[in-house]
Amino acid sequence: MAKDFSDFAVRSLNKQRTVTNNYWASYWLSQKILELNLVNPQPTSPITPIIIREDTVNAFAIPGNIIGLHLGLWQFSSTESEFLSVLAHEMSHISLDHFSRLSSNQSQQGWVLASGILLSILLAQENPEAANAALFSALAVTSQNNLNFSQAMELEADQLAQKLLNSTGYNGDSGRAFFQKLEQTSFTTDAYEFLRSHPLGSTRASRLANRTLSESTPEAPSVSAFDVIRFNLLRDSDPSLIDPLAGWAKLPATITDPNLILAWYRSRAQQQPDDNRYLAQVSHLAGQYRGFLPAYFEQLKLMQRLGDSKLCHTFTPFAHAIDSRYATLDVLELLQRVSAQCQLASATEWQARWLWQSGKEPQALALLTNQLSDSSDANQIARLKNLLKDYSGRYDRFR
Length: 399
Ligand SMILES: [Zn+2]
Fold this sequence. Notes:
Blueprint: H1 2-15, H2 23-38, E1 48-52, E2 59-62, E3 66-70, H3 71-76, H4 80-95, H5 98-102, H6 107-124, H7 128-141, H8 146-167, H9 172-185, H10 202-215, H11 225-234, H12 258-271, H13 275-288, H14 293-306, H15 311-322, H16 329-341, H17 347-357, H18 361-374, H19 378-397
Parallel strand pairs: 1-3
Antiparallel strand pairs: 2-3
The chain binds zinc ion (ZN).
């Protein structure tokens, strides 16, 4: 049920165009979650991090192991530790199984709450009042006692988060202080941080972000993966952001983090565009760091755009690596396009998966049904039947 709900939540949020689909950032978040989980005495099952296209400084965890991180939080966090303290806090709610405690052992209530939370996220952009009404009616359905748990839960989540951060070498104390600062600025008093709205608007948040960036001295290359990924994520909406690598004359030999290397190549490609050089660089990076999928993605994207002859050859290892994992829509969109261009048997499945996750479920189901009646390949028929059965079942349970 959790997996189905998570799938439903992603589809719904994408349908409303509430998600910022940025594979690099999403991959980095997943890596950080894995890192924190390694030191977690109560490791969680897989978590899907989702970046919400909202300027408010906010984050939430909902049943189905989803963590939502608003763009405003990326803007407002000035260091990796600060940002990760919020991620670790949300992760702790999942890890400590606060949702089942919320529902007083009646899982039905937990799901009502989850649906109400999700609905209110969806409504928040269009109609904040309707969003609050949806949240409060969901809360009303769950037991009154649940509200009393929340302070204890928040403390518990803070403590676990601090432990996780300290065990992974981040500064748990500064992170916690940052998070408490956020909590204090919260003006909603229902103790859940779900949909907490902060008076720190987008303007102030971006001003703070900019100031932090311009104050850092270019000679000291103390740039983190978070800095470059945040820049990549926010630059579309805020062209005034300064590239954290702008002051670098060359890539220091001591840098081994593939995130920083990719950012450096991108930065150069922005300043002095040369597609062939950039493709050679990202191809080299993908070969050097085999597990670093953002480099593969960049490579495939470039090859597709440039009509490179190795496109179809490069597709397969990347598609295999993505296969059963959660991937953002930008990845699925490219995979469906390239698999069709290369006339691969998997093209229908990638297209169906892309449509499905975009929230175009009827189109995905129709595509699979049509392809099933056209296909004569027994293997393909078996795969398509499985996928259709899976999607139809989920669509009946959550639509
Ligand atoms: Zn919390």
